[in-house]
Amino acid sequence: MTTSTGTDWAAWQESWDRQQESYMPDREDRFRIMLDMVEALVGTAPRVLDLACGTGSITGRLLTRFPAATSTGVDLDPALLTIARGTFGGDERVHLVEADLKDPDWRAKLPYDSYDAVLTATALHWLHSEPLAALYGQVAELVRDGGVFMNADHMIDDSTPRINAAERAQRHARMDQARRAGALDWAEWWQVAAEDPVLAEPTARRFEIYGEHADGDMPAPVWHADVLREKGFGEARPVWCSPSDTLLLAVK
Ligand SMILES: C[S@@+](CC[C@H](N)C(=O)[O-])C[C@H]1O[C@@H](n2cnc3c(N)ncnc32)[C@H](O)[C@@H]1O
User: Fold this and answer.
1) Burial degree of 12 (CB within 10 A; 0-12, 13-18, 19+)
2) Atom 7 in ligand 1: which residue has the minimum CA distance?
3) What CATH number is attached to the domain comprising 8?
4) Which residues in the chain land under pLDDT 70?
């Protein structure tokens, strides 16, 4: 996707979306409901923190729907941040920050100390529950009173093993179908990035940082709601769910 005339950042965004959608066919629904709830609770010109932003998937959809919004994207992955910078470079509404959310001081790198909405998708399952609870405490301090936090991710309720097994089997069968139809999986997508002249170097660095990342699972939605209330939010509950995923909303 890099030619002699430059890099086609929109093509990288598109290819990232197709790869992610092959795992989550409902991904756009999750984003849509997330932005519906942003509008409902903090309006159409919010200051947003896109936590573990990757290529800026939330930021892009936010600014398309709410042109008066602003966004700070934070991530640790140098390759995905390169795509985000290529996409949003020159847009004064967007700040991109390279930081590790497990670093106790990551918030010092942010341009603001308060946000109307902190939003995250398909990312925090990379953190175990202890560092995740600590992160929720830090997020609670960043959200202004009346502001919101939303996390859309794969959250597992261990009390329903048969439902989980059936859902998982169906989801994997559909992923296999997507592969047969030509969708790149995670490893193949990174292989393409590693061969791109512009992304090769940051991709090598991201593998030094993360290694071969294996996806983890998150605790049940009720765990997130309980911890978020414990950390300072007034209300917290799911506002959308599919058989595999939940969008959890907390209001401060
Ligand atoms: C699957 S991607 C999702 C990106 C984006 N939210 C989306 O939905 O397209 C997960 C992201 O979480 C980021 N991430 C995981 N652990 C992180 C950490 N400790 N600090 C910062 N970012 C992290 C990864 O670098 C990656 O960009």
Assistant:
1) buried
2) 57
3) 3.40.50.150
4) 4-5, 213-217
